[in-house]
Write a structure and sequence with these properties.
Elements (H helix, E strand, L loop, with lengths): L2 E5 L10 H8 L3 E4 L17 E4 L5 H13 L4 E5 L9 H11 L3 E4 L4 H9 L12 E4 L14 H4 L5 E5 L5 H12 L4 E6 L7 E6 H11 L5 E5 L24
Parallel strand pairs: 1-4, 1-5, 2-3, 2-4, 6-7
Antiparallel strand pairs: 7-10, 8-9, 8-10
EC number: 2.1.1.133
Family: Belongs to the precorrin methyltransferase family.
Protein name: Precorrin-4 C(11)-methyltransferase
Length: 249
């Protein structure tokens, strides 16, 4: 049988993909992160499905549940918030399943940064302003950042930076990015993107930390810093330009 790592999306239950919902409905076992995955999604599971909240389980316990379901002949839905490709801890689970000989597939989902951009009503890549987006986090008590991936280094690019898991460290983010982006650089924080309690905070880099602390945002948020967030005067893209040759064979 197969383990399906399914991206549950950023929070709103209807932002799971059609493929994700169909896969969830076909699995007799579902492992989900109860602290992050909306419970409404569990209604997609078969009525007699075994539901396992992994919020209090460690990697060994999660792996044991996946292997057990496989040995019992059940397909397994492993629901992860956002998209499994970034900050999901899926890689270590895949490694364990490889060692156990358990097959798996990945069903992508809507990542948190995409939901945040939608809430801000912003395209993150704007012609002549910015064409690069960096997805990263900051080092703290969790896994250390690899050499060369600290904010001071990444900030030299001037690219739009999207930080996950960093709202609690917003002062540090500002301090490290100010020398590269300037005090007037647009910044935004979106907490609980796409959920009913979503909170959008906008400002400049030198004022965003104060606004975040005033709002009491500590987790489940993305921080964005970059000029494309405030771009108004820019060239139209070549994609729809009347000068573009559209009939080349």
């Amino acid at each position: 049988m197969t383990v399906y790592f399914i991206g549950a999306g950023p929070g709103a239950a209807d932002l799971i993909t059609v493929r994700g919902a169909r896969t969830l409905a076909a699995c007799q076992v579902c492992l989900y992160a109860g602290s992050l995955v909306p419970r409404e999604l569990l209604a997609e599971c078969p009525p007699d499905a075994r539901l396992v909240d992994t919020a209090q389980l460690d990697l060994d316990e999660i792996t044991a549940e996946l292997v057990r379901a496989h040995e019992e002949g059940h397909d397994v839905a492993r629901l992860h918030s956002g998209d499994p490709s970034v900050f999901s801890a899926v890689a270590e689970q895949m490694r364990r399943l490889d060692a156990a000989g358990v097959p798996y597939e990945v069903v992508p989902g809507v990542p948190a940064f995409a939901a945040a951009a939608a809430s801000l009503k912003r395209e993150l890549t704007v012609p002549t302003v910015g064409q690069t987006v960096i997805l990263t986090r900051v080092a703290h008590r969790a896994t250390a950042m690899p050499e060369g991936e600290d904010l001071a280094t990444l900030g030299r690019s001037g690219a739009l930076i999207v930080l996950h898991l960093a709202a609690r460290y917003v002062d540090r983010v500002v301090d490290e990015l100010l020398p590269h982006y300037g005090a007037d650089c647009p910044a935004a924080v979106v907490a609980y993107a796409s959920r009913p309690d979503e909170l959008v905070i906008r400002g400049t880099l030198d004022e965003i930390a104060g606004k975040v602390k005033e709002a009491g945002v500590l987790r489940t948020a993305v921080i964005m810093v970059g000029r494309t967030l405030g771009a108004e005067q820019f060239r139209d893209s070549h994609l729809y330009s009347p000068e573009r040759e559209r009939h080349v064979c």
